[in-house]
Amino acid sequence: MSRRDKMIAKIKELMYKPEYIRNIGICAHIDHGKTTLSDNLLAGAGLISEDLAGEALGMDTKKDEQERGITIDAANASMVQEYEGEQYLINLIDTPGHVDFGGDVTRAMRAVDGAVVVVCAVDGVMPQTETVLKQALRENVKPVLFINKVDRLINELKLGPEELLKQLTSIIVEVNALIKSLAPKDKKNEWMVNVEEGSVAFGSAFKNWAINIPKMQETKFTFKDIIDYCNEGKEDELKQLLPLTEVLLNMVVKHLPSPNVAQVYRVPKIWDGDIESEVGQTMIKMSPDGPLAGMITNVAVDKHAGIVATCRIYGGTLEKSSEIYLVGSHGKARVQQAGIFMGAETIDTGKVPVGNIAYLTGVKGASAGETICSADCIIDEFEPIDHISEPVVTVAVEAKNTKDLPKLIEVLRQVSKEDPTIKVEINETTGEQLISGMGELHLEVVTNRIINDKKLEILVSEPIIVYKESVLGHSPVIEGKSPNKHNRFYIDVQPLDKPLYDALIEGDLKEGRIKTKETAQDFIELGMDKEEARRVWDVYNRSMFINMTRGIQYLDEVKELLLEGFEAALKDGPLANEEAVGLKFILSDAKLHEDAVHRGPAQVLPAIKKAIYASIMSANPCLLEPIQKVFISAPLEYMGNCNKDIQNRRGRIIGQETKGVIAEMDFEVPIAKMFGFAGDIRSATGGKGDFSTEMKGFETLPIYLQDDIVRQIRTRKGLSPEPYGPEHYSA
Ligand SMILES: Nc1nc2c(ncn2[C@@H]2O[C@H](COP(=O)(O)OP(=O)(O)OP(=O)(O)O)[C@@H](O)[C@H]2O)c(=O)[nH]1
Question: Contact 106/39 with Cβ under 8 angstroms?
Answer without folding.
Answer: no
